[in-house]
Amino acid sequence: MYRLMQPSDRAAVLALWQRERGDSEEFAETLLYRFAGVQNVYVAEENERIRAAAMAVPVTLQGRPGNYLFGLCGQDELLLAGLVDYLCAQQRLRGAGFTVAIPNGSGQADLLTDKGFQQAFALRCLPREVERNLWSQAEFDSVTAKKLCELRERFWPNTVQLTPERMAVVLGDLYSRGATIVSSEKGYGVYFRREDTLYFVELMADDDRSAEKLMEAAREKEVIVEKAVITVGAAQNLFLGEGTRQDYGMIRFEGEPFDVSESYLRLMLD
For strand 180-184 and strand 197-205, is the pairing parallel, antiparallel, or unpaired? Predict the structure, then answer.
């Protein structure tokens, strides 16, 4: 039986999540209550046991309401496939016009493909040397969740957007894992430092030079850094023609399809 999560399911859903994903109970509760909201958590019940669960996190894209299918967990593929269909159908009744997902491996990608999802939101990954420039100035870790949503809307309006409240959960997770946000009037970037390399998981700017200045400012802050590995959207206006294209996200349309060839999906707790 497929249904919405009920308060009495809390312990079983948390146990399933921790068993499948390895997160702490505290973080799992944050996902249930703050990132998704229990009104958007679906479960598969069999023989009075919760066997699978998934979250339908509200998002928008091009002004349209939709869902982010997140945290699909369980071992029975037939149950998971049925749960995906049920979740999408129920969210469609609530007005969702699409569902996006970031598959956790090829097996899940195949399952989603069978359920009507198609590839979208490709990325480009490119290495770059970072020049030393003492004159490149920027701010660090001054961007709030609300501001990050505004910056994404400014630099790439065609982005799958979370609410500021849900983006706060994403930011908290990024910071807990050692991320830094560098920003200026002309752009921003989210990066991790590993030894002498900056790994930018998101970088948006007015142009290539503005992006380079952000990297140079980050190099000055981190001191021992000499290079960067940057991940940007495949259709992004930065460093065009550079990098290796990578499949990333998927989308299923619940109503009339629309063009997502230049849309962007990133920073979704994946």
Answer: unpaired
> Can you list the domains of the chain with their CATH numbers?
2-121+248-253 (3.40.630.30), 123-246 (3.40.630.30)
Record the pTM.
0.95
Alpha helices in the chain (DSSP H): 10-21, 25-30, 77-93, 106-114, 145-155, 164-176, 208-222
Task: Please report the DSSP string for 164-221 in residue order.
Answer: HHHHHHHHHHHHHTT-EEEEETTEEEEEEEETTEEEEEEEEESSHHHHHHHHHHHHHH
Tens-digit pLDDT profile for residues 54-106: 999 999 999 999 999 999 999 999 999 999 999 999 999 999 999 999 999 99
Question: Do residues 62 and 263 make contact, with C-beta atoms less than 8 angstroms apart?
Answer: yes
As a whole number of Å, the end-to-end CA separation of the chain is 27
